[in-house]
Amino acid sequence: MDGREGLRIAVRSVRAHKLRSALTVVGIVIGIASVITFATFGASVQAEIIGDIGDSNAGNIYVFGTPSDDEGFDRVLQPVFTEADLAAISEIDGVTAVLPRGSIQVSSIRAGNQTLARSQVTATTPESITTGSIVAGRSFTSGEREVVVNERLATGFSKNLTAGSTLTLRYPDGEERPVTVTGVVNGTRGELPVSNFARQPRLFAPVDPFYEAVVESPSAGVRQRAYPQVTVVTDPRQTAETRKAIEDYLADDADARQLSASDTELVARSGSDFIDEISDVIERITRFVTGIGVISLVVGAIGIANVMLVSVTERTREIGIMKAVGARNRDIMSIFVIEAALLGTLGSLLGVPLGLLVGRGAAAYADVTFALAPDWIALAVGVGVVVGIVAGLYPAWRAARIDPIDALRHE
Amino acid sequence: MSETAATATAASDDAEPTVVVEAVSKHYTVGSRVTALDGVSLTLPTGSYTAIMGPSGSGKSSLLNLIGGLDTPSSGHVAVDGKPVSTASEDERAAIRGTDIGFVFQTFNLMPRLTAVENVALPLVFDGWSRTERLDRATDRLEAVGLANRTDHVPSELSGGQRQRVAIARALAPDPALILADEPTGNVDTDTGATVLDIFDELHAAGNTILLVTHERHVAERADQIVHITDGEIGSIEATGEA
């Protein structure tokens, strides 16, 4: 028997039971669609994040201390990188800028009579505020009580903040100090790549006079400012060598080494390290969630198997007729396998666009650019067909084994 | 159909008979052991028209199933057109059923979702014919049974007599060596039954070998010889007077 005839018979059978076939296909559609949705959404998020970290940060090296038994950032970073360390790092070949970053404890920010709690205030140097990132106004000036805010904070009050607005910072000890907003920015240079995602209101202030964490520098022998994290901007052509030199410095001569607990590792990470780590995490999450989608695919397969078993029973007499007129067992088997594969294929063909649609919707909802995951789509279609075939194998085998004499007597 | 132009009564011993049944027994185990056939031997010469008669449970259907390759004997030997049906593999028997034997059933046994022409072409599907070839052949066979204008109707749109004629056309599609008919008039009215039997007469006249199972005397009398089966054994073989 040729495959086309098998397909023709399968199409007739599917069309003869439209509702039943449709309901069976729905199981596969949901399975395939959820796999595609999760996979494309994961790919979209991943692409967005990698795009966010972007090329502009390619030459950045992020220096911070991390407990050696901990991969994350969940512990509060200690201010250990002194002004002396900063000066030493800036002398390293290939370093174009050293941007200290510290956080200032502020309990609330007030504009007029409106108060905003829980805002992050970062102390850094004017070099962190690049011209390209300024949306309005100008950067702050070192030594002045000036700050810049990000767009989220600028729009966080009933009256939008602009250059010249006045804010009041309330410190944990109850003291309140006024500051002047000089500009609005959409980000700063040297931010840890991960800090972009939160999109929370942020305020940036010059180290002088806002940042007050000081330690005694072992090398300089005087008390000076120290920072929990430093971003080193390097010449992208020699980032690798520069990074090595920084690591060497951190391991031996740095104040930070002496100021840190012995189990704290001082690391110099590049932007691509972050990209790799984040990609890895997202991929693992995507795979896990997609795995849940696969479960619905399995449910769909069981649905196909169930319907095919019913179909075999219903068509016992037809099987008998076909056997009486010369159908071999494998002909009968292929008729049913083709029918099951047809259901699986239909499910895939409907599930892929549905999954892409929902994935697109999810991407739009999460405000990330939609990205396709072509390998997942191909895999999903393949899986749909295979699921149909596998689900059809047992019913088809049952059909093939039916005794023609019994089948012809079957009502 | 005219290629094998043997005469109706051609039972010459030198030609190889179309059906040879030798000492065939068939036992079933349904709770206890049941003997459906007990040492049956029967030879159907090419071009002969034979009727098998017997009460229900006599074993006549079992014999038909064995000759038709739907079943295998417990002992003994069956050959159709020189092919050893009883010792063939399952696939080989399927091929014999599809090409050497044409079945006509009491309940027609047409595929409900296939059109008349597709039903007739069905045996050719499994014999590997191309769609064009098999539909040509099927159309031709439908014309032969007078259903040229019903080719695209599904069985539910046809009368009982028309359905049985489709079934006969299907049996004829592969040019089989043997036509097996199991109570072919059992499910149609008398007039239609007569038409069906007329078709068998024509087929017989054209040289086809026919084996027909019936419990109706007037049907059996259309054949050259009547084989009476009782309790799984051949009681007598009665030659009918040439009409």
TrEMBL record, chain A:
MF (Gene Ontology): transmembrane transporter activity
Principal subcellular localization: membrane
Pfam families according to UniProt: FtsX, MacB_PCD
Entry's localization field: Cell membrane
UniProt topology in membrane: Multi-pass membrane protein
PANTHER family found in the cross-reference section: ABC TRANSPORTER PERMEASE YTRF, MEMBRANE COMPONENT OF TRANSPORTER-RELATED
Family in the record: Belongs to the ABC-4 integral membrane protein family.
Parts of the chain that traverse the membrane: 21-43, 288-312, 332-356, 376-397
Protein name: ABC transporter permease
Domain ABC3 transporter permease C-terminal residues, every copy: 292-404
From TrEMBL, chain B:
Coiled coil ranges: none
Entry keyword annotation includes Ribosomal protein: no
Ranges that cross the membrane: none
Keyword Transport among UniProt keywords: yes
Cellular component GO terms held in the UniProt record: membrane protein complex; plasma membrane
GO molecular function annotations of the record: ATP binding; ATP hydrolysis activity; transmembrane transporter activity
Keywords from the named record: ATP-binding, Nucleotide-binding, Transport
Domain ABC transporter: 19-243
UniProt-listed InterPro entries: AAA+_ATPase, ABC_transporter-like_ATP-bd, ABC_transporter-like_CS, ABC_transpr_LolD-like, MacB-like_ATP-bd, P-loop_NTPase
SUPFAM superfamilies in UniProt: P-loop containing nucleoside triphosphate hydrolases
PANTHER family (alphabetical): ABC TRANSPORTER ABCH.1 (PTHR24220:SF86), IMPORT ATP-BINDING PROTEIN (PTHR24220)
Protein name stated in the entry: ABC transporter ATP-binding protein
Organism, scientific name: Halonotius aquaticus
